[in-house]
Specification:
Helices cover 41% and strands 11% of the residues. It is an alpha+beta fold. It has two domains: 191 residues, no CATH class; 122 residues, 2-Layer Sandwich (Phosphorylase Kinase, domain 1), CATH 3.30.200.20. It has a six-stranded mixed beta sheet with strand order 1-5-6-4-3-2, with helices on both faces. Helix 2 crosses helix 7. The termini are far apart. The chain binds adenosine-5'-triphosphate.
Length: 362
């Protein structure tokens, strides 16, 4: 099974320089822990990805680089195959998991490297660099869970293991916390279940962060997400992808009578859909197409968070028109009585709650 890899600007090198990744420690850890394979190929591949992140973290720690050079990719896979062979005999990682050769090396960043390794002073190279970085990030966020094993959403974990945590990536606590790898031999029977649990905790933690974070999806999206299961959130929601004309119609071309609020990132308009549903539309200002994929993914993540006290996110719209330029909008249920913020601090006197009521709410 092949996973398309659009960042492969050059074909994988067949001339193999020797692999600078050091698999010695991880080999003995895996052997000591007597790790048992799962019957599920996906789980094996996920485990293999996590082990590789730990090895990459150790590589970063010793060299200051996230990935080895592209021409070492083949030999790195061979070395890793031989490690994996000790717990899953005859398992060829690339074939079985759909991992492509460059993914173990800086070949996975080819597009970004060619666009960003130059003077970024002028707008055009700067835009190309940012676009390739955002596309790279978005493709990893939206890809299959195993995606690109060197996926950039995990770079902060690799970095934390290498250069932030004083004990380093091989420390049992670090390996367990950052890479979901439990090498304690006595518990090997439950390793896979534990790993799954840790992955789940990562995702729940991530959702927690998102809820605490103000859900404002500005035109520039930052790094978001962590953990191997993040992409499973995407696609699980029932967001409507509106087209721009539908929203224009619903808001009467963003008529000022429909303007119900202003935020730092854009105005909020009320509107009515053809089925009679009343909506609030946040129209982000100063948008460019770069980062659209991150934006839509983040919208999906936010939509997956449901709570009685949170207004429901119904959909979004990303469009470019000749007249209005690039547009990003999110569509929520309309809160007839305004937001909690309006009631606590709003200027509209009729909405503002009395002082004792506000105290009670806080
Ligand atoms: N779903 C909604 N229903 C009714 N009114 C809303 C809704 N969403 C926002 N508003 C109104 O629009 C105002 C601005 O909302 P917005 O989400 O843009 O605020 P913000 O979080 O301060 O913005 P930003 O994240 O851009 O800084 C709110 O204070 C509220 O009056």
């Amino acid at each position: 099974r092949k996973i398309p890899h659009r960042f492969l600007a050059t074909s994988p090198s067949s001339s193999s320089s020797s692999c600078p990744l050091n698999f010695t420690n991880i080999r003995s850890l895996i052997q000591k822990a007597d790790v048992k394979p799962s019957n599920n190929v996906d789980k094996n591949c996920q485990y293999i990805s996590e082990v590789l992140r730990l090895v990459l973290s150790a590589y970063l720690q010793s060299t200051g680089k996230f990935y080895p050079p592209l021409d070492t990719a083949d030999s790195c896979w061979d070395s890793y195959d031989s490690v994996v062979d000790s717990f899953i005999p005859n398992f060829k990682i690339r074939n079985s998991c759909g991992f492509q050769t460059p993914w173990i090396s800086e070949g996975s960043l080819n597009d970004a490297i060619s666009n960003c390794n130059k003077s970024l002073e002028d707008n055009s190279p700067c835009a190309s660099c940012l676009t390739s970085i955002t596309t790279l990030q978005a493709s990893y966020l939206r890809g299959p869970f195993r995606g690109n094993i060197s996926d950039c959403t995990n770079l902060p974990l690799i970095y934390a293991g290498a250069l932030i945590n004083q004990f380093g990536p091989y420390d049992p606590g670090t390996a367990k916390c950052l890479f979901s790898l439990d090498f304690s031999a006595s518990e090997n029977g439950n390793n896979w279940k534990k790993k799954l649990l840790i992955s789940l905790i990562t995702v729940v933690g991530f959702i927690g962060i998102k809820t605490r974070r103000k859900p404002r999806k500005g035109c520039l999206t930052g790094w978001s997400g962590t953990g191997p299961n993040l992409s499973s959130i995407g696609g699980s929601t029932h967001l409507i992808k509106f087209n721009f004309d539908e929203i224009k119609q619903a808001t009467k071309k963003f008529h000022r009578d429909n303007l119900i609020g202003r935020g730092g990132y854009g105005n909020v308009y009320k509107g009515v859909l053809p089925n009679g549903n009343e909506i609030a539309v946040k129209r982000f200002k100063n948008c460019s197409a770069a980062g659209d994929l991150s934006f839509t993914h983040e919208v999906e993540v936010i939509a997956s968070i449901r709570h009685v006290n949170l207004v429901e996110l119904r959909g979004y719209c990303v469009a470019t028109t000749n007249l209005e330029g690039h547009q990003r909008l999110i569509v929520c249920d309309l809160m007839q009585n305004g937001s909690l913020h309006d009631h606590l601090y709003g200027n509209a006197l009729e909405r503002k709650l009395s002082w004792p009521t506000r105290q009670k709410m806080l």
